[in-house]
Amino acid sequence: MQRSAVAPFTTRPQLFASAWLARRWYYTPRSHRAYSVRQISPGDRRLLAEFALDLTHHAAERERDSVRQLCDLLFDQVIGGGTREAAGFAALENTLGGDRVIGVCVCSAPDADGADFRVAVARTHREEQIGKTLMAALLRHARRIGVARLSGEMHWSNRPMQVLALSMGFAIEAVPRDRNLRRLVLALR
C-alpha cells in the first residue's frame, strides 16, 4: 500500500506569486529562439542592471537620454518605488547561465494625463518582434488597470519604433521643445 503525503492547509495568501511567476512563451520569427515575457519583480534587479549597462554601452549619443529615462522609470518607480500602479514587463531568454533580459517595457504610475511608457530591446534581438510582444503585454495591463492614455517619446530616426507604434494605433506628434523627438500617444478609453 502506498502512502501519499498531503501538505497542510494554510491560510497564508500567496503574495504576488501569480503576477511574478506567470510567463508567456514566444518564438522569434527569424532565429526561432524561445523567449518568455513576464511582469518585472524586485528580484530581477541584477538581471535588469546587466541589461541597462549593456544598453548604455551600446547606445548612440542621441539615445543616451532615452536610456537614462528608461532606467529612472525602471529602477525608481517599478522596482524601488512603493507605487503599485507602475509596472514593467521583461522579455527573458533562457541561457546556460540562467535567464537574460533581452527587452523591457515599463509604464509609470498613471495620473490625470495618463501614463508614460518606455521600451527597449537588446541590439542583438532587434527585428525579432520582441518590442511588439512587450508593448502588447503593456497595453493589456494598462487597459486592465484603467489607464486612460499612454504616451512616450522616441527619436525621430527610430523607424522600427514608428512602424510598431502606428501598427498598434499610436498617434505620432512632434515635440515642441526638441525637433529630434516624437511623442507617441494612444487613448485607451
Second-tier CATH architecture: 3-Layer(aba) Sandwich
Could you give the count of β-strands? Answer: 8
Assign the CATH topology: Aminopeptidase
How are the strands ordered across the major sheet? 1-2-3-4-5-6-8-7
- Main β-sheet description: 8 strands, mixed
Helix coverage percent of residues? Answer: 25-40%
Give the CATH superfamily: Gcn5-related N-acetyltransferase (GNAT)
- Our count of helices gives 5
In a nutshell, what does this entry contain?
The protein has 189 residues and is of the alpha+beta class. It is 32% helix and 29% strand.
Written overview of the protein:
This protein is of the alpha+beta class and 189 residues long. The protein has a single domain (25-187), classed as Aminopeptidase (3-Layer(aba) Sandwich), CATH 3.40.630. It has five helices and eight strands; from the N terminus they run αββααβββαβαββ. It has an eight-stranded mixed sheet with strand order 1-2-3-4-5-6-8-7, sandwiched between helices. Helix 2 runs antiparallel to helix 3 (64-79). It starts with 16 loop residues before the first helix and ends with a strand. Mean pLDDT is 83; it is low at 1-20.
Features:
8-stranded mixed beta sheet, 189 residues, alpha+beta, 8 strands
Which SSEs are present, and which pair or pack?
Layout (H helix, E strand, L loop, with lengths): L16 H5 L2 E4 L6 E6 L5 H14 L5 H16 L7 E9 L2 E10 L7 E7 L8 H16 L3 E7 L3 H9 L3 E4 L6 E7 L2
Parallel strand pairs: 5-6
Antiparallel strand pairs: 1-2, 2-3, 3-4, 4-5, 6-8, 7-8
